[in-house]
Amino acid sequence: MHKNILICGVGGQGALFASRLIACAAMARGLSVRTAETIGMAQRGGPVVSHVRIGPSHSPMIPHGQADLILALEPAEAVRCLSYLKPGGTIVASTKAIRPVSASLMGGGYAGGEMLGYIEPRAKLHAVDVEAICRAGGSERAANMALLGAAAGSGALGISLSEIEAILEEAGGKHPAANQSALRLGAQAVKKGENTP
Description:
Blueprint lengths: L2 E8 L4 H14 L4 E7 L7 E8 L12 E6 L2 H6 L4 E10 L6 H6 L5 H8 L4 E5 L1 H8 L5 H12 L6 H11 L4 H17 L5
Parallel strand pairs: 1-4, 4-5, 5-6
Antiparallel strand pairs: 1-3, 2-3
Helix pairs in contact: 1-7, 5-8, 6-8, 7-8
């Protein structure tokens, strides 16, 4: 298997944890994996991008136009990273917008739906209502798991939901039951077509 997966969001959303789970699941299959992260402003709320390359590669960084999948925890970050996506690639994105500090200070508006509308004609898009999934799963902080489950459920991840669940069980964490629930609900939402751009 050869797969380039880019995970983007803002600090505090769990992008790095999601990338670690994907990498560990691929390594459990005996596959070669390289990862790299770029963390903007090194603080909660700054942009975070994580590269996961499964299969042979010379660099841990995904070249522009080569990502098979973008897992976007925030809609504007999906737009910002769109140049990484290869033609025919897939984006699994949260519908929940996180208003940047700059927009708050300047009084500017920001709507996640506009960002998803921009993406829709340019890529195969699975927009996921992570807020609803997190409420149903019992933890507001499981958006990363909801999107990871959606990516597995869509088939775009190339790693099954059961493989991710097994790695998550080994990893433990602060809220294992809520994380497992969010994974399953994310996969179910994509399979039912409960995604609206």
